[in-house]
Amino acid sequence: MVRLDLGDVVLRRMQDKDIDAVKALIKEGCEGTENRLILYLLTRSLALLMLAILSSVLRCVLNSFIMALVAPVFIFIIYLKLTIPRSVGILGSSRPYWDYMGSCYHADTKPDLPNPHTGRAKLEKTRRRKKPKEKVKDKTNEREQVDEDELKERATVAGEVWVADSDGEIMGCVARDGWSRDGVCRICRLVVQSWYRREGLGRLLVQGLESRTKQSGIRRVYAHVPFPSKVGEAFFRRLGYRLQGETAGTEGEDDDYEEPEKGCLGFTLTKVFVKDL
């Protein structure tokens, strides 16, 4: 496999043409994490107790011991598949659906995220190549057909999605949730295409978004890491994030608590990591 040259990567706002690629990327990232979450919930003590009780009740009704044992587990898995939000498993978000059109609002006017691996001259050349005048006009005409106030509201709900683009290929994405408090924001999605993992692309996306949010006055960033993602935990620790429970006593920590995502039976699905910029 050819090693990725981070200097060729442009970190830009997601545009309308990127929606399908980003959706496919997020779906790929969700699949394995969702299954790990289901396994984690199935092995909790309370869940095992409830499954055992239900199996005992079914045993009195069904003649098959195997069916009485398997049926509750199967029903529980189906229930979790339907109730666990698709957004949980990337970095967590209480919102199960995203308005991708809204997140593209004014994307053409947003400057790229900083990439320390790219020279200034090369970056300017890439920007000019990626934004021909004809396409800008076409997108402007499309946007005029949508009510301006409605699009602004949808953009607020969707947040901001940034993609890592190299020669037109979307290799990863990171998103800042539309939710915000004074001086605080949440990174709610981080996905890197499987071919480009362990190449520093995830670090580049997160650090680029941190740099942009810091310029806008944000001083604290939260990130949700799903149970039991050891890789995700190690990744954010390397970037200087701390587990929220480990920051007890830190100035301002008690006044600004981020609630972990919770799922079936009230079990916590995510660990909250925090970093002060």
Structure commentary:
This protein is of the alpha+beta class. The protein has one domain: 3-Layer(aba) Sandwich (Aminopeptidase), CATH 3.40.630. It is built from nine helices and seven strands. It has a seven-stranded mixed beta sheet, with helices on both faces. 29% of the residues are buried. This is Probable N-acetyltransferase 14. Keywords: Acyltransferase, Membrane, Transferase, Transmembrane, Transmembrane helix.
**N to C succession of SSEs:** EHHHHHHHEEEHEHEE
Oligomer: single chain
Query: How does CATH name the architecture?
Result: 3-Layer(aba) Sandwich
Distance between the termini: 35 Å
Structural class of the helices, strands and pairings? alpha+beta
Keywords:
GNAT_dom; alpha+beta; single chain; NAT_camello-type; Aminopeptidase; 7 strands; seven-stranded mixed sheet; 44% helix; 277 residues
